[in-house]
């Protein structure tokens, strides 16, 4: 189970202020806390910096790598910012994201070929957000074939079925779960990932929905999440669910996390 810590994102007010003030200590502490809580990869996103995004991405990648040894997920709608982050990154990075939209594909696939990162691939093409399980399966074929042709092995591909807010349509939760199951069945060697909190957007007590949805996703075949690792009940449920799903031999990960105080009932 792969956990991508989502908190270094300039859409969050405190992070935006830290970036504007070049508050290195705040960003580094946030990175360290996420790793200590169980994050395997740290997402860095400064998309609200606009004209300064390339420079800010360089700064973020440099200062986060000073204090954590885990890889970073370079996260931006800008191909130039992705390139900047990948060039500064030590070792194999992850990128968020590529899609089958022609403009996005053409901008990002050269970076994929050059840097060979782990790739989050959104199940979306020029037709827009997927409206069904079949839409996701159709687009995923295109993505997987294109990434394989670019030299990316199956183990480094993370399909994102695109989770839509439950508050917009009460069927979006089941649509997502059915899509995860279908992708897992069709591509057992490919990873599935999602931004967990998308499901709860606009609804009260969002963390409760996120936690319940995570367990349901895991049982359908999701094996990576972009989430808040500082949500201790969420991380505790994740470790427990992985063990209960038979993915933690002798429950060693669960026991270790419990003994270290990382998780708690």
Question: Can you lay out the helices and strands and say which pair or pack?
Answer:
Layout (H helix, E strand, L loop, with lengths): L1 E8 L3 H8 L3 H13 L4 E5 L7 H15 L4 E4 L3 H10 L5 E6 L2 H14 L2 E5 L10 H17 L7 E4 L11 H15 L4 E5 L10 H15 L3 E4 L4 H13 L7 H9 L5
Parallel strand pairs: 1-2, 1-8, 2-3, 3-4, 4-5, 5-6, 6-7, 7-8
Helix pairs in contact: 2-3, 3-4, 4-5, 6-7, 7-8, 8-9
Describe the structure.
There is one protein chain. The protein has 265 residues and is of the alpha/beta class. It has a single domain (2-194, 222-227), classed as Dihydropteroate synthase-like (TIM Barrel, Alpha-Beta Barrel). It has 10 helices and 8 strands. It has helices at residues 13-20, 24-36, 53-67, 79-88, 102-115, 133-149, 172-186, 206-220, 232-244, 252-260; strands at residues 2-9, 41-45, 72-75, 94-99, 118-122, 157-160, 191-195, 224-227. It has an 8-stranded parallel β-barrel, surrounded by 6 helices. Strand 3, helix 4 (79-88) and strand 4 (94-99) form a beta-alpha-beta unit. The mean pLDDT is 97.
